[in-house]
Structure formats: C-alpha cells, structure tokens
Design a protein that fits this description.
178 residues, mainly alpha, 55% helix, Fumarate Reductase Iron-sulfur Protein, Chain B, domain 2, binds iron/sulfur cluster
C-alpha cells in the first residue's frame, strides 16, 4: 500500500542522505552545525514561525545535519528567513542558525536554486544600484516633508561590486531552474 504524503515526508530514505552536503554547509559558515541538540529554541524564537508554522529553523538545521540536500534546496521555505538573528541570540549551543541558513542559501544560489523574489530584487540592484527604482514622486514627497532628495547611487560602482562578487554570474546560472 502506498505511503500517505505526510508519512512519506517524515520517513527519511537512505539514498536521500548526502554527507557531502552537510560538510559543504559547515564549510560555508555553519561550523557548529553538528552540536545542535534539537531543543527547538530557534523555532520558538522565530517570528516567521509565528506567522507560518511550516517554516521551522530547527527542522532546517536537522535536515542539514542529515544532509537532506534535495529536501532543503527544493523548498521555498529556505527563503523565508528574515535574518532577524533571534535564533542566533538564543541558541543554547551556539549553532548560530541564522548563519547556517545563510550558508545554505549561498550554496543553493550557487547550485542554481534561487527564489524568484530574490532574483527580482537582485535585478533591481543591478539596474538601479539599490533595492528599489528611484521615482520622482518619492523626492516630491520628501520635499513636502522638508527632507533632502534621496542620495544618488554610483551605479557603475555597484555593477563592479556585483561582477566581482559573481552575483550576475550566479543569477544567470539559476535561470530556468525554478
Ligand atoms: S536553538 Fe540551537 S540547539 Fe536548539 S534546535 Fe535550534 S539550532 Fe539546535
Ligand atoms: S534569523 Fe531567520 S530563522 Fe532565525 S529567528 Fe530570525 S527569521 Fe527565524
């Protein structure tokens, strides 16, 4: 008899375990990954979990320990972390979950898994040098409030940084992988 979807999700098959992925996460910034004792303090502290219980940093850490690469990288949940660092402040084992999640995101991006929202945001930075397009009405509103115009951005400098940090290349490698 076929397993129900929820049971399938909970059962870990041996072929899903990828030790190399765990080591990659450790190397990319998750140095204390293996000392997590699954207390759940990170999840209890997480504002995203309060909003949506399907986002669970404890589970992401556990999955990384077990090397469940495909489960993590194929899940949009990875991109919900708001990088507020509440989990990192409170983790009793110093795992620094926010850094682990950031390391996993970096690995995901290099492998071509980038959430569409982040691609759009990165494109805006590439095109405008910041995360939003400068609109004239913004400066008009600022003027009405007695504020100076938004400082201009040196787009060429931003472009050079993005090229140097390989952001453009990584974005291009992720095209068509959604
Ligand atoms: S708070 Fe730290 S030790 Fe506890 S589950 Fe989260 S990462 Fe693991
Ligand atoms: S850094 Fe991310 S995982 Fe940690 S508490 Fe904040 S939103 Fe949750």
């Amino acid at each position: 008899m076929p397993l129900a979807a929820e049971t399938r999700r909970r059962v870990i098959r041996l072929e899903e375990i990828n030790d190399a992925f765990s080591r990659e996460v450790i190397k990319a910034g998750g140095e204390k990954l293996y000392v997590c004792f699954q207390c759940g303090t990170c999840t209890a502290s997480c504002p995203i979990f309060k909003f949506d219980e399907s986002y669970n940093p404890r589970l992401i850490i556990r999955s990384a320990v077990l090397g469940l690469m495909d489960r993590i990288l194929n899940n949009d949940m990875l991109w919900l972390c708001a990088a507020c660092y509440s989990c990192t402040e409170r983790c009793p084992r110093g795992v620094r979950p926010a850094e682990v999640i950031r390391a996993i995101r970096n690995i995901a991006a290099e492998k071509g898994y980038i959430h569409e929202f982040f691609k759009t945001q990165a494109d805006t930075i590439i095109n405008y040098g910041r995360i939003w397009e400068e609109e004239e009405f913004v400066n008009e509103m600022r003027e009405d409030m007695g504020l100076p115009p938004v400082p201009s951005v040196n787009r060429e400098e931003v472009k050079k940084i993005l090229e140097y940090t390989k952001v453009k290349k990584i974005l291009a490698s992720g095209e068509g992988e959604d």
